[in-house]
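pinning this so it doesn't scroll away 📌
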Amino acid sequence: MPKYVMQDTLTGEYLKSYDVEAFDGRGSAVFTRYISEAMQFDNSLDAMSHWRRQSKTHPVRPDGKPNRPLTAFTMTIKPMEEPSS
């Protein structure tokens, strides 16, 4: 069963790491050009849940909406291609 990764639709780079609580709940994301370095998820639902994670440090933005820093990026969730045998 393939793993899933998240790809930024603007840059084409893959999410390598993400800390929702970094920078006082503003979040920190690191991207890579290489799919082999990307964070891997067991299924697309896990990837979507990770993308929508809400900060516990600052759960609400000043506008009253949920603080989900990674949603500032438009991401595509796609399966990793399994290596050919």
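📌 and the second one:
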Amino acid sequence: MANIAAGLDAALARRRDAGARASTTPHQYVVRARLRLSAQRLADAPGKIVDIALDCGFEDVSNFNRAFRAEFGESPRAYRARLTG
């Protein structure tokens, strides 16, 4: 968990350095980074979706499900089922 947080802190610092060129806020950037990490873990690692969501920095699974669906167009469960068959 500490490694994930440190990685996100470093990513956020790089993001701030990029300045106003980007069209996303730092918060949106962090959420998307967490979603990318969770998508990778859903594809590669067995485990409960709720555990992956919490490990990736989401405070509850309902917010994670909503954000995941908005970003990827499908639920975490459907995403995992499609990739793992």
